[in-house]
């Protein structure tokens, strides 16, 4: 699967297990993938179809066991009652059968059972793509000891180096640490939470608060001029503003980042607690001129990102007494909400402020949902 149709200068963003068996990897250039696997079939990404498949899977899994948390587009966690804990193999087979016969035989799943969500995820990863792993509490230390540090979610390459500096080179060494030692190595409470998770405690991180709405996009190879980048940035910002309004937030800051092949440029503009397209797009126009004033005219732009930050819930917004813009603001907000309503009614962008011309391939503001599950509106 690739971001755009055709073009050797794009990359594989997700590949099948059959392709992996031939040496193809995620984030591999298409030209290299073709050299390794001459008969590879390249398919442009289709985020809306992934969202539909995700919703169908959640529905089918929920018919067997209640879904506790949706962690990503292809990962969910469930809590087991006493009956289910006594027959985990039967439960897993029922889930697999439900997916096979109600979704499709080509879609497999790996299932892990353990004392908490973190251990269950690690267990499920040990037998992909269609395995079943059951870790009873007394078996966990020995099972973890067989793994590499990089196999533990939350431990990347930089953390492996930090652990090595602390004279921890394997999982048994990690398990031998104390909670406060883990916290010191991670330099925050995440390390301590990981210690408790690896030792079987069901410790949950507190729910994070929303602090931004944004979108980023790597530009298609044939649309990397400053003018193309500006048009796509505008679409991304409108998408972010729509999401923000649906969640009943206002933004006080607009962030812009433009990246070329060798370096990037960025800046921030104050907004004054707004949510309507007119105020946000006006701020983008000024911000774009400031940022691009220092970019050489013929620069090829690889990536753009735009973010609405410093959020305030609509119930907590305090208008500026000295701005005297309340009447105009309310008119613009009412107009934005009316446009949102029309677009929602017809299931696509039928009305917008200014031009609405998504680039070839579409999917502006939507992508493969490894973490955030998009709403249907994200694909309009």
UniProtKB/TrEMBL annotation:
Keywords: DNA-directed DNA polymerase, Nucleotidyltransferase, Transferase. The keyword Transferase applies. It is an enzyme of class 2 (transferase). Gene3D superfamilies: 3.30.70.270, 3.40.1170.60, 5' to 3' exonuclease, C-terminal subdomain. One of its GO terms (molecular function) is DNA-directed DNA polymerase activity. Monomer. This is DNA-directed DNA polymerase. It comes from Novosphingobium nitrogenifigens DSM 19370.
């Amino acid at each position: 699967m690739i971001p755009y149709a055709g073009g050797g200068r794009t990359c594989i963003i997700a590949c099948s297990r059959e392709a992996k068996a031939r040496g193809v990897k995620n984030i591999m250039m298409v030209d290299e993938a073709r050299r390794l696997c001459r008969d590879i079939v390249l398919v442009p990404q289709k985020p809306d179809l992934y969202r539909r498949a995700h919703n169908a899977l959640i529905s089918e899994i929920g018919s067997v066991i209640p879904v506790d948390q949706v962690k990503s587009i292809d990962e969910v966690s469930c809590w087991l009652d006493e009956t289910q804990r006594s027959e985990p193999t039967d439960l897993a087979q029922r889930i697999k059968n439900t997916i096979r016969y109600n979704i499709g035989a080509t879609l497999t799943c790996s299932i892990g059972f353990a004392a908490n969500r973190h251990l269950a995820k690690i267990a499920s990863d040990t037998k992909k793509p269609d395995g079943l792993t059951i870790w009873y509490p007394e078996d966990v230390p020995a099972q973890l000891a067989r793994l590499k540090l990089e196999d533990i979610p939350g431990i990347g390459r930089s953390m492996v180096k930090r652990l090595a500096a602390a004279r921890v080179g394997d999982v048994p060494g990690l398990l031998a640490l104390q909670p406060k030692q883990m916290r010191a190595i991670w330099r925050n409470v995440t390390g301590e939470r990981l210690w408790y998770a690896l030792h079987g405690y069901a410790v949950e991180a507190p729910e994070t608060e929303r602090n931004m709405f944004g979108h980023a996009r790597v530009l298609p190879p044939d649309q990397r001029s400053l003018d193309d980048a500006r048009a796509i940035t505008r679409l991304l910002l409108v998408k972010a503003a729509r999401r923000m309004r649906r969640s009943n937030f206002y933004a006080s800051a607009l962030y812009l980042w433009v990246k070329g092949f060798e370096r990037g440029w960025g800046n921030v503009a104050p907004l004054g607690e707004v949510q309507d397209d007119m105020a946000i797009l006006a701020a983008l126009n000024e911000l774009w001129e400031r940022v691009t004033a220092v970019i050489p005219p013929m620069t090829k732009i690889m990536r753009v990102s735009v973010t609405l930050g410093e959020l305030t819930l609509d119930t907590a917004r305090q208008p500026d007494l000295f701005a005297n813009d309340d009447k105009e603001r309310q008119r613009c907000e009412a107009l934005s909400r009316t446009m949102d309503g029309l677009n929602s009614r017809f299931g696509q962008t039928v009305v917008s402020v200014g031009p609405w011309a998504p680039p070839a391939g579409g999917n502006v503001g939507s992508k493969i949902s490894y973490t955030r599950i998009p709403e249907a509106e994200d694909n309009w």
